[in-house]
Design a protein that fits this description.
It contains seven helices and two strands; from the N terminus they run αααββαααα. It has 147 residues and is mainly α. The protein has a single domain, classed as Orthogonal Bundle (Arc Repressor Mutant, subunit A), CATH 1.10.10.10. Strands 1-2 form a two-stranded antiparallel sheet. Strand 1 and strand 2 form a beta hairpin. Helix 1 packs across helix 2, helix 1 packs across helix 3 and helix 1 packs across helix 4. It is elongated and about 60 Å long. The N and C termini lie far apart (42 Å).
Length: 147
Amino acid sequence: MRLTRAGDYAVRCLYYLSAQQEGIVTARKEIAREMDIPEQFLAKIARQLSRAGIIEIVQGPKGGFRLIVSSDKLNLLDAVEAVMGEIFLNDCLMRADSCARSGSCAMNMVWERARNQLRETLREATFDKLLKDESCLGNLMLYENQE
């Protein structure tokens, strides 16, 4: 499985919104510029994130996007699956009828376990944790540069 460009951009957008003060509307142009996302692609991704109930799209001259899920509740799994759909590692897991051996296949069990571990890892990575980790890394780098 490879993260699509849409999945990557959704994560970048939500990361930026999570770093903003709660309830703040952030302009689409600002997010696109700061997170290196093509503006038209960001608009498409924003519609998907809005349909998933993660952001609100605010229209008008002072419009933009507002995060409506707390960053301590929002995780990478939510972000990725909002634009890519549920994560599956192979067709057997997605559609059991795609393979006659699905129910008794040892490989299928490995794929399922790997899928569950990946989904759990992404679920544990909330945006507030990611922001705190980056802040700690930034502070560590500042400290190292002072030595």
